[in-house]
């Protein structure tokens, strides 16, 4: 089985999760940062995994553009979707809003891998918002290795 992981990251958490996931999936696995790498032809892959960070309820615009442009090709593949977000309430709703219910309903696995606040990587306005909403000014990392392992186990089942 060949698997393509396409991810969009802003501060590195989604990239970190994608690399961890890549190491857990069997077979040939290619991980692509959509912002700075060329996407290979998806027809050559059995599994397509799409992941993105969530900011103010939205996924990375490059990820959204990718799945809209390639929706018909994606319908023919085994799809996995994940988000990285600190707000772990209503994950199903967040995934449906992020990827659209039509794509989300086709996915064989959907998960939130947790998230992180890294103040050194944030711009002034982002820091301001996080301080107000999350009521913290400290770096926090809440990545769920258990969720990543569960996701990989489902992808690895043929």
UniProtKB/TrEMBL annotation:
One Pfam family matching this protein: Flavodoxin_5
On the tree of life, the source organism's domain of life is Bacteria
Flavodoxin-like domain mapped to chain residues: 3-158
What are the BP-aspect GO terms?
heme biosynthetic process
Q: Which InterPro entries match?
A: Flavodoxin/NO_synth, Flavodoxin_dom, Flavoprotein-like_sf, Protoporphyrinogen_IX_DH
Instruction: Offer an example of a GO molecular function term for this protein.
Output: oxidoreductase activity, acting on NAD(P)H
Q: Which PANTHER family match?
A: PROTOPORPHYRINOGEN IX DEHYDROGENASE [MENAQUINONE], PROTOPORPHYRINOGEN IX DEHYDROGENASE [QUINONE]
| UniProt-recorded name of the protein | Menaquinone-dependent protoporphyrinogen oxidase
